[in-house]
Amino acid sequence: QVQLVESGGGLVQAGGSLTLSCAASGSIFGVNAMGWYRQAPGQQRELVATITSDGRTIYVDSVKGRFTISRDNAKNTVYLRMNSLKPEDTAVYYCKLNNRFGGAYWGEGTQVTVSS
Known about the structure:
Layout: E1 2-7, E2 10-13, E3 18-26, E4 31-39, E5 46-52, E6 57-59, E7 67-72, E8 77-82, E9 91-99, E10 104-106, E11 110-115
C-alpha cells in the first residue's frame, strides 16, 4: 500500500504565499509522476501541476507564473510553492502519485483558503 501525507495548507491573505508538501511512502514500486490537484466547493477536481521523474512539468494555465512544482526523488516528496495567491485558488489540494505499473494513489487533501 502507498501512503501520501500532505502538509502546508492553511489560511492566507490574497497576494500571500504557501508551500504544500506531499511525502510518499510504502510499496511505491517506482514513481512515474507526482502532482497536485484541487477541488473547490461545487467544482470538479482539476489538475494544478504535475512533475515527472525526469523533471518535466505541466501547469494549468490559471497558475502559470505563480505556482512552482518541484520534487525530491530521494525522499519521494513533491512540493508546490504557491505565490500571489488569489481567492479563486481556495480549494482542497490533493497530492497524486502515479507509479511505473499504472497505479494511481491520492492523498487525503489539505485545505487552502485565500481571503480577499
